[in-house]
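Hey,

The postdoc asked me to send both predictions to you directly instead of through the lab channel. I've kept everything plain text so nothing gets mangled by the mail client. Protein one:
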Amino acid sequence: MAKAIATSEDASAKITERIDELADWRGEMLARVRQLIHDAEPGVVEEWKWRGVPVWSRDGILCTGETYKQVVKLTFARGAAVDDPKKLFNSSLEGNVRRAIDIREGEKIDEAAFKKLVRAAVGVNASVVAARKVKKQA
């Protein structure tokens, strides 16, 4: 199993490199959602895992940002537990845990709804951490 890059600064640099390497709509979209994630949750930590996947975490993984030929895929680790009133999740809907947003070239993202989704994912992670603490104390 590949390890995460040692520091958040190193991971941030790798994510920036990935964005620059793409040099097309995928890089622009990855940069945009990265900024939205930081706007929504200033305490988010950037990681670089699994041989080159950008990851944003806060009390556990919030989401990953993978790039493919046709889509930028944002997979939320606990997405099934995240309230999504604007129906941003459009991929990996059959699973019990994860949910994803596939963004294709030319598509716009509802930025306000996306930020709310990120904040909701932070809340889910915080609840899991709190539940673990309670369980340890019992």
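Protein two:
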Amino acid sequence: MKLSWSAATDDKGVKNYDVLRDGATVATVTGTTYTDTGLSKGTDYSYTVRARDTGDQTGPASGAVKVRTTGTGEEPSPATRSSSATSPSGASTAATTTSTTW
């Protein structure tokens, strides 16, 4: 599952982003993309992203992006959109895109 989002802005500067799957942090990245692997087929997931500034303060989590992986069995497959979410700024997001402006 490849996720991407627009860069956040902050008066101190943005250091990195926490990527959360179903409310739990699965990665911390410095860029604006992340590929989640090892997902189960036929499973619903919800992703949010939270920016962290250079003072180590976190911003609010983005709007959730909900996806359902296709297929059955143990091997991961491409995800399909199960619903869309709205980012905190009110812009509609695609299944693998979320907003982190704060």
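Summary for protein two, as requested: The longest strand covers residues 44-53.

Thanks,
C.
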